[in-house]
Amino acid sequence: MPLTQDLEQILDLVLPTDPSFRRIEPAMIDSCIRDARHHAVEGSKEAFLFSAMRLLALPDNGHTRLIPNDSISVLPLRFVSVGTGVQLTGPASETTAPRGELIAVNGTTWEQIEAAAATFLAGTRQRKRVIGPLLLAWPYALARLGFSSGKNTTEYRVKAEDGQITDFELENAHTVPASMLYPRNEHGKADPCWRPGRFAEIKDWQGLGLSIVLPSFFDPGESALQMAISDVAEHVRAYPNKNILIDIRGNTGGDFLRTMPLIDAISENTSRRVVMLVDKFTFSAAIVFVAILNYRLRRRLTLIGEEMGDGLTFFAEGGLLDLPVSGAVVRYSSAFHDWENGTSNQTTPADIARHLVPAGKLTLDREWVGRPMAETAQEAFYQHVLRALND
Question: How many whole angstroms separate alpha carbon 139 and alpha carbon 105?
Fold first, then answer.
């Protein structure tokens, strides 16, 4: 089957359905369609995918994008965005490469590659930083952006924690399926196969307060998340005078409606203080969770971390479209969300519109870029934050 079939599915379903495209000049859309069609007719899969990424990135809405992970091969290296830089967290098995901060690819800095790739990546600056590292291991993408080595290899420069700089190169033909190293919902963990062991974990730090870890709101079974939230909400109500630390870093979203019982429980005590840990891997429903608590608690909520992966005004819901020829996936939207001003329109589902609140700006009270921690170090950090909250 020709790649044009994939393009026609995008044009028949995604563009007419997704309201985020209504803000884009038709001439810009037409130009991107022509480019994608050209590569589809040629039968060049990677070129077509890259052009389709550009088309679907036009609205700058992170919920609308082409996800190539299941359909491409990459060099066996996992890159993850940390702060404004990128870390090589580890290679695939049977590949030797140093871990550390990425300095350059084929002599080009990450900042230059990031700038060149911006129009091909959907969403906010932070979301681009989440999904962009995939391109660093994709030889075609580097060449398309103008950063190939001119040889059949890709050269990397990495700085270890001790400051040692290492140069190494890999043969471009030495690739693995991208999905092995880059999950569709990028969570930022070193292990690409990471899955949450449970949906909520609560711990009582005695005189300091409670900590709650919420790693995900996505529950295919539709019961485990609800039960976990109910259990934690009951525990929170049992200790009405205790301050709370909520760690929602790496939570890529899911169904915020199932978290409302916990939001209600946290909000009931008017003197309780809450600190929330967030990062660029905090997305979608997780941001809505933060927004509602910010609206309810106001000055009693402290935000620590880095700018989150989505803004408060975005398009979501929609669904996934599997492209039969290329094997890529398209994520498209169907509904408008505005959690900054609390407004909706005809596309906003009624059950979501009922909960919309004008949360205002989610301004960080303290910027902090968290790095992977051992369990004991994480516990010490939680205690430090809760202790500061009580001062």
Answer: 11
